């Protein structure tokens, strides 16, 4: 049998990363399993967004926030697996969880923290043959860097909050913004829509979809798109520098338990639990967006509180004599050596 872990955390978004840090702090042998190639969860969907609402943290870009979360998660040398999807969870006669992953491996753990958000999110791609070859150049499903769009002609496909938020962000960056949307009205927040409608840089084309991508001579980039206006059946040729497609996300929330009733579901994917992270299944705890209880907030700060509670509950589950919680965790003895190093460095600098 392979190594046994005290806790295995499923999902490497903010809840899973902070649970990883905190379980190390509580001296638990920890494994984190993430299905995507990169850790960070939903924050990877907004790398260039400025996050303002994490207490004590100055406004920070999503991408930098993920870097910091990962660094913190690694503090106590956990085992971290990426590109590994949990498919199935079972329990053996010794009360050990057996976690089966899509690479055919089995992982053994005394407890589990479900931090799998709403599942695995992938952007809904443009349904045009050959579109994928431009993903490395000027066809985007998220905004990788604002600099790329400076003084450019940017076409945004979509009319929901995601698309319109990007269009508003582009107002001070791009030279021209063309929003195309298949419906006859934008469905985003009214104030954001009003900002676009009153800006001369912006053209909004409703009842319109992208029909074709025309490449440049070198076939490396899209230089023009063919748009179809469905109300007039008109075709428009629109030159562009960049396209941002914001058509929502496909969600893969498939993950099975040996006993299907083992985790109570509130609706199609929220695990109904408690603010202590406990779920209906003994030994399985939950944190972050996947967890539902009265007063739960699906925000970054909510994930951290959930993580602390889930880890503390898991700790007591595997060791009933353990403290229910660490009252002042930054005074933990594990930090003493690191604190000494930091103070020494400060003294040298002075
Ligand atoms: C566009 C957008 C903007 C936002 N802006 C803010 C903001 O400004 N401030 C704020 O506080 N919050 C914001 N949020 C909310 C915040 O991002 C979420 O609350 C937070 O990411 C939830 O973290 P989580 O770890 O619970 O779930 P997620 O971030 O969803 O992470 C779950 C992870 O689990 C993995 N996973 C799922 N299933 C499996 C499986 N079977 N096996 C292995 N891994 C699996 C997924 O790949 C994913 O990495 C925003 C969300 C979005 C979508």
Describe what you observe in this structure.
The mean pLDDT is 93. This protein is globular. With 350 residues, the protein is of the alpha/beta class. The chain has helices spanning 14-25, 62-73, 161-169, 190-197, 300-318, 336-349, and strands at 4-10, 30-33, 50-51, 60-61, 79-81, 86-91, 97-101, 106-114, 120-123, 139-140, 153-157, 176-180, 202-205, 208-215, 222-229, 234-239, 242-245, 249-252, 256-257, 271-272, 284-286, 291-292. Strands 1, 2, 5, 6, 7, 8, 19 and 21 form an eight-stranded mixed beta sheet that branches. Strands 10-17-11-12-13 form a five-stranded parallel beta sheet, covered by helices on one side. The longest helix has 19 residues, at 300-318. Helix 1 (14-25) packs parallel to helix 2 (62-73) and helix 1 (14-25) packs across helix 5 (300-318). The chain has six helices and 22 strands. The protein has two domains: 4-121 and 250-345, 3-Layer(bba) Sandwich (FAD/NAD(P)-binding domain), CATH 3.50.50; 125-247, FAD/NAD(P)-binding domain, CATH 3.50.50.60. A hairpin with a 6-residue loop joins strand 14 (208-215) and strand 15. Flavin-adenine dinucleotide binds at residues 10-16, 33-36, 41-43, 45-46, 51, 53, 85-86, 115-120, 255, 288-290, 298-301, 303. Residues 5-313 form the FAD/NAD(P)-binding domain. It catalyses: 2 reduced [2Fe-2S]-[ferredoxin] + NADP(+) + H(+) = 2 oxidized [2Fe-2S]-[ferredoxin] + NADPH. Keywords: FAD, Flavoprotein, NADP, Oxidoreductase. FAD binds at residues 34, 42, 46, 86, 289, 330. Homodimer.
């Amino acid at each position: 049998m392979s190594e046994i872990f005290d806790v295995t955390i499923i999902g490497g978004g903010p809840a899973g990363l902070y649970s990883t840090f905190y379980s190390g702090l509580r001296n638990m042998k920890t494994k984190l399993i993430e299905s995507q190639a990169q850790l960070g969860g939903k924050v990877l969907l907004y790398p260039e967004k400025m996050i303002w609402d994490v207490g004590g943290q100055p406004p920070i870009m999503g991408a930098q926030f993920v870097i910091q979360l990962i660094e913190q998660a690694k503090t106590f040398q956990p085992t971290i697996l990426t590109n590994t999807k949990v498919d199935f969870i079972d329990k053996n006669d010794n009360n050990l969880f057996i976690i089966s992953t899509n690479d055919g491996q089995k992982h053994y753990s005394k407890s589990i923290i479900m931090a799998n958000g709403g599942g695995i999110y992938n952007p809904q791609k443009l349904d045009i043959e050959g579109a994928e070859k431009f993903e490395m150049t000027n066809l985007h499903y998220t905004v990788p860097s604002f600099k790329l769009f400076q003084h450019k002609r940017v076409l945004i496909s979509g009319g929901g909050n995601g698309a319109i938020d990007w269009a508003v962000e582009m107002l001070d960056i791009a030279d021209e913004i063309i929003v195309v949307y298949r419906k006859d009205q934008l469905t985003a927040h009214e104030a954001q829509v009003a900002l676009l409608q009153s800006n001369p840089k912006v053209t909004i084309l409703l009842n319109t979809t992208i029909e074709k991508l025309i490449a440049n001579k070198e076939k490396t980039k899209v230089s023009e798109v063919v748009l179809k206006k469905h109300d007039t059946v008109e075709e428009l040729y629109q030159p562009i520098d960049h396209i941002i497609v914001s058509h929502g996300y496909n969600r893969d929330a498939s993950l099975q338990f040996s006993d299907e009733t083992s985790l109570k579901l509130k609706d199609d994917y929220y695990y109904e639990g408690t603010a202590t992270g406990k779920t209906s299944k003994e030994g399985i705890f939950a944190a972050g967006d996947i967890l539902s209880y009265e007063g739960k907030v699906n925000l970054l700060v909510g994930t951290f509180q959930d993580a602390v509670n889930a880890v503390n509950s898991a700790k007591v589950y595997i060791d009933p004599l353990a403290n229910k919680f660490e009252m002042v965790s930054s005074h933990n003895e594990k930090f003493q050596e690191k604190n000494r190093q930091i103070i020494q460095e400060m003294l040298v600098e002075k």
